[in-house]
Every structure is written in C-alpha cells, then in structure tokens.
Specification:
Layout: E1 5-9, E2 12-16, H1 25-32, E3 51-58, E4 61-68, E5 81-83, H2 101-108, H3 118-130, H4 139-146, H5 157-166, H6 174-177, H7 179-188, E6 195-199, E7 202-206, H8 210-219, E8 224-226, H9 232-237, E9 245-248, E10 258-260, E11 264-268, H10 273-283, H11 287-291, H12 297-300, H13 305-310, H14 318-325, E12 328-333, E13 336-341, H15 342-345, E14 346-348, E15 351-352, E16 359-366, E17 372-379, E18 390-399, E19 402-411, E20 418-419, H16 421-427, H17 434-447, H18 458-476, E21 488-489, E22 492-493
Parallel strand pairs: 1-5, 7-9, 8-9
Antiparallel strand pairs: 1-2, 3-4, 3-5, 6-7, 10-11, 11-16, 12-13, 12-16, 14-15, 17-18, 18-19, 19-20, 21-22
Helix pairs in contact: 2-5, 16-17, 17-18
C-alpha cells in the first residue's frame, strides 16, 4: 500500500499524506489552495456552482468529466487530474486578456451577469469541449450537459448561445497542444498499490481488487463504502457527520465492468450511469429518459447504479425498473458470492438484506424476450434534478392477446421499492384491453398505502400510480396515443413535444 494521495493540479503533481477522509475537493481548493473561482452554492450537488473537471487516463487518451466538487472527497483524486476555472487561460490572466474559447464565448454572448455561477458553467462547457471535439455539439446535448448548472440571472438564453458558439466541430485549445505532457504526468502517478491514508481524523482506504476489499471489510465492518459519494457526500455537507473509516471503491476495475453475455447484462456495482447508460438502453431503451433525469451530468459521471441500490432508498429511481425486469443482485464477502432477487434486497425502510461484511458486487439484468413490453416513468415536480414523487415500472408479455409475466413495481408508494402484486394478479392471464387495465388500476388500492409528504399527497401518489399503468397501456396498445409530453429522449425532445408541457 502507499499512503500519499497524488494528483495533478495546475500542471503539477500534488502529494498529500495527511487528510481527513471526508474532506471535500471544494474545501481543499478554497481553504488550502485559495483557488476561489470554484464556488459553493447548495453544497449538495444540485446547483453546479462548484463544478470542476476530473481528467482520467483511458488508454492513450484523457477522459474529462465534470463533477461536483462540493461532495467529491479529496482522497478520491488519487491518480487523476483536477482542473479548475483558474487553469483555463493559457497565461497569467493578470498580464493577458487571452481567454479559453468557452470563456470567450460567454463574454461575447453576455452569458454572465452576477457571475457567481459562471465558473461552474465554464467548467461544464470545458468538459463538453474536450469530449468528441471533431463534431458539433447539438442543442439537445447542450441542454443535457448544462442541466446541472443553475443560473438566477440570465434566463439561460445567452449561456446557450455561448455554448453553441464554443462547441463547434474541430475544437482545439492549449490543452490539446499539451496533451502529451498531461498524459505523461498522469502516467507518472499511476500505481498498482492500494491507497491507505491514516490521520488523526480517520482512515481512507482505496483497494484495487475485490479480494482486498473483502479483507478490508472483515477488518472494518463499520466502514462507509463510497463510490461516487453523491449520497454519502451529503452526510458530510448537510448532516455534518464524521466518517471515521472510508473505503473508496473507485480503484477496483472488477467492479466497473459491464459485460453482455447475450442472456444477461452484468453491471458492476461501481459502473457509473454515464458508463452504463449505453449498455442498459441497448436492451431496454425505455431506461434512457429515466437515467437522463437522475441528477445531472455531474452526478451521473460519478454516481453508480450499485450505489443507488445499496443505499436502500424507497425513492431511488433505478430499483423499480430493474425489479420489473426481474433483475438479481450479486452480493459478496470473503466467503464468496450470494445471489438474491433484487426485490428481496429491500426488507423495510432503512433495512436491507446485506450482512456486515458484504457489499453489492453486481447487478444481473436479464435480456428482454421478443414479445416483452417494458416502460419506466419518473414523476416529479421538475423535469431536471428532482427527487421522484412516484417512479413506476411495468414489464409484460403479450401472448395471443393475453397478458403474461406481468411485473409492476413502484418507488415512492411504500417504505421500499415494492411490486404491486394484487395488480399483477388481475393482469396475468387476462386480455390485453382497457377493461383489464381498469380493473388492475383498482387493485392497486390493495397494494399500497402511500404517505403524504413534501413531494406529494397520498391521494396524488395513488392517482399517479394508477394513471401510469393506463399510460403504459396507451403507449403499447395497437393504436398508440401521443401521451409523452416534455420527456427528453437521447438528449432531446421528440418532434412536436414541448419542454414546458
């Protein structure tokens, strides 16, 4: 093991050997480095004012990802490059007015007013600037890429114009010219040794294999497991919790793998939404509009499907759809692997079927059958960056005009993600027509007793759940109906649809 965090900042290798395991990147930048261009707004990964860019080696390229520094732990930067808004000008800004192309576009299009949010927008645009630079970035992709950056002044129109100006094809900047040197610097700090940082404030472990993780969990069963920290980060920033022992999973390549066997998609627990969306939606396209509404780009770049499951939230967006498909969960400890049905993992509110020395290793998603219908829907007050009031998922096979293998699951309707078994009983074996759907909607009253809270009333939740089943039928009936309004598909709205609907 090595005990020093090494990462690149401002073109130099930084080494830190004494760090609080829950110290955030934002705290380090502002308090230790006095780099105050990166702002704190919400401190929970919603507003984007704290956006920085992480550079990671990917083969012989550098992959740039926008992330929220307010909930990213500093020690997770080991082996990576950290870029802030101060890095973007090629020379000292005090002696030259030369700006990065995304900054210049923001100036020319009047994309900044009070300026507080501007560095975050610039860094999100910088990440897009370097991803697939040979082609134009279209408007829908820009909307998706900037959904995690909030501005209270501009109304967004000048920012969008700036993005369209900056993100034209054949993009090059000073980072393009320094690519070789940046890769060499990154290569110089790569190691096959695991990280272990121990300080008076706690311990931070970053194992590099599943076997090593099993050993660590046996010795530290109360440790907090962290992958993207999009949930755990809020324990620190909002609940002010002290994390004595953190085990970071981002260095375990085995847990990042996504394997398509033909019959199943095996999704490693630390595969991010950004990395998994293509493989998941290849089998189940209906997952795309849902995944694109989980957090924003900064969250999806580090947030993981396994983490969404492991935290056991009753309003996690992925479990209902995965349960509806019949997904299973692979859990592991030093004794070996244990397979369970994903729906059985959720026991009650705050309680999951996970032993003290176990961790979520893999999600096993079955490939759809030829006559399977599947959809999943998220209902929330805002289209972007909002927690679900209700999340519903439906999977059925239609055989000779009758429904078979109906699986209906909801989040937000009970203390865990829960199947609507009475509803399913009405559906299975009966005709695929409106009367069956109407009867199944009534049966949901036996399945759920939702609560009233800040997101929705109990009555609203029940009505929405019933109506989502009706929507599923209308979308998949022989005569389809134009029932989708204001839902983004693949980074854009369908023709004839309104973003305001």
């Amino acid at each position: 093991m090595h005990n020093t965090i090494r990462f690149i900042l401002a073109g130099q290798v930084k080494e830190i050997s004494d760090v609080d395991p829950s110290r955030t990147v934002l705290e380090y930048l502002r308090e230790d480095c006095h780099l105050t261009g990166t702002k704190e707004g919400c401190a929970e990964g919603d507003c984007g004012a704290c956006t920085v860019v992480i550079g990671e080696l990917q083969g012989d390229e550098i992959r740039y990802l926008a992330v929220n520094s307010c909930i990213q732990f500093l020690a997770s930067l080991d082996g990576k490059q950290l870029l802030t808004v101060e890095d973007l000008h090629p020379k000292d800004v005090r002696t030259t007015m030369e700006l990065h192309p995304v900054q210049q576009a923001m100036v020319e299009q009047h994309g900044s007013q009070c300026g507080f949010c501007t560095p975050g927008f610039v860094m999100s645009l910088f990440a897009m600037y370097h991803n697939d630079p040979e082609r134009d970035v279209n408007r829908s992709e820009i909307e998706l890429g900037l959904a995690g950056n909030l501005c209270r002044c501009t109304g967004y129109a000048p920012i969008m114009r700036a993005a369209e100006q900056a993100l034209r094809a054949n993009r090059k900047d000073n980072f393009s010219g320094l690519k070789k040197q940046s890769i060499e610097l990154l290569e110089s700090i790569q190691t096959k040794e695991s990280l272990q940082v121990v300080s008076e404030n706690g311990r931070f472990f970053a194992p590099q294999s599943v076997a090593e993780l099993c050993d660590l969990l046996q010795g530290h069963p109360q440790a907090v497991l962290v992958a993207g920290a999009t949930d755990v980060g809020l324990w620190v920033t909002k609940q002010h919790r002290k994390l004595d022992t953190v085990i970071y999973l981002g260095g375990i390549d085995e847990l990042k793998q996504i394997t398509d066997t033909g019959n199943h998609l095996l999704i490693g627990a630390t595969a991010t939404y950004t990395d998994a969306i293509g493989a998941v939606c290849k089998h189940y396209p209906a997952f795309r509009p849902l995944i694109e509404r989980i957090g924003a780009t900064q969250v999806r770049n580090v947030g993981t499907i396994g983490g969404n499951i492991a935290n056991g939230s009753p309003i996690g967006d992925m479990p209902p759809g995965l349960i509806a498909t019949g997904a299973r969960l692979a859990l592991r400890n030093k004794q070996g692997q244990r397979l369970i049905e994903l729906e059985d993992y959720f026991i009650s509110y705050g309680k999951q079927d996970l032993h003290a020395d176990e961790f979520v290793e893999q999600i096993i998603l079955p490939a759809p059958s030829g006559n399977q219908l599947f959809s999943t829907y998220k209902v929330s007050k805002r289209l972007e960056q909002d927690i679900s009031a209700v999340c519903g998922a439906f999977s059925m096979q239609i055989e000779k005009g009758k429904i078979a293998n109906a699986r209906v699951c909801f989040g937000g309707m009970a203390e865990t993600p829960k199947r609507a078994t009475a509803c399913e009983q009405v559906l299975n074996g009966n005709a695929w027509h409106q009367q069956t759907i109407t009867d199944a909607m009534k049966a949901m009253l036996e399945d759920f007793s939702p609560i009233t809270d800040m997101r929705a009333t109990a009555g609203y939740r029940m009505r929405v759940a019933q109506n989502l089943l009706q929507r599923f039928f209308l979308e998949h009936a022989d005569k389809t109906y134009p029932v989708r309004l204001g839902v983004r598909y693949g980074g854009g709205f369908q023709d004839g649809e309104s973003a305001d609907a």
